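Section 5.1 Outputs to date
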Amino acid sequence: MESRGSVPVRPLPYEGVWRFTAPAVDASVPRARHAVRDLLVRQAVPADEDLVQMVLLIVSELVTNAVRHAAVLSPEVGVELSVDAGWIRVSVEDGHPYRPKPLARDQTQTGGRGLLLVQELSREAGGACDVEHTAGGGKVVWAALPLTSRTAPPSAP
């Protein structure tokens, strides 16, 4: 634990890591979104409504991708929410080894741009998004967003 002078730094009340699993079925998408929203409210995470909506959209897109593209090899998906003083990170893990790539912006397609949307939202918010392989041969797709928006005025000390 770091300290400032002689006073140890304690985690803020809303900081933590929460993980749950869900079956790789369509019904898990709204359930995951509701679970994340409930968690943000219960932990009193200081996120404005725009950030909450961004996080929920990212959860929806990442869980949808796992359900649609990985369910054949991964009957469950793991959803993790990590919050600290400066960041919210959403991760979705599945057991499929395929590393997704964002598709081109093609207005004639009705789907297939979820990862591109997650990358754009993350970038615009000043965050990041990536895909990592797991030790078990699957993957984790994650997005991290700053708790304070780039356009928000700095908070008072």
